[in-house]
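User: Could you check the structure of this?
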Amino acid sequence: MSEIIQTYNKGAYIAPEGDDLTKITALIEQSLRNNGGRPACYANTPEGLQTFTAKATDYFAYLRTANEDIEDKRIVPDIENFCVYMGLTRRTLLEYQKTRGQEWEQAILFIKDSIFACKKQLASVGRMPPIVFVFDAVNNFGYHSTNEFHITTEAPQKEDAPKIDTNQIATLIEDTTTAPQLPQLPE
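Assistant: Sure, the predicted structure tokens are below.
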């Protein structure tokens, strides 16, 4: 008999029994039945935004309190840590930012910018490895790190440069081959 397991968001799923393939199939079937996902932690309302920003403020207060007694290895604010504190995933935070309107977007961008400012300060004084900072900036803050070169086979044409087609080039080559030969210089 399968066991019913309670999940974090007060849902439930049936733990599959049997061999590995049966377990995987049962898990897939259960996922398909629960395709609605878990309910949003913060409602898409003005009250939900107020709750969200209050909890975000609590996150920064928590960091301040946690770091008071630490001399060397302080807790650095970051997006993943913030999301765990808020009970969200990075993807959910990004969805809130993109789909919930300008007020949500501005609140989330301000929080992200605050976190990024801390990390940038640490990187600029050598307290964070540059590669960690770059990866974080690209993955969490929308920055781009690229080393792309675009090579083309055509040189850019100047406005006043004469345009020559292949027939004219062939004529020029023929003219140079029939030009009088210069005498050989002694060795």
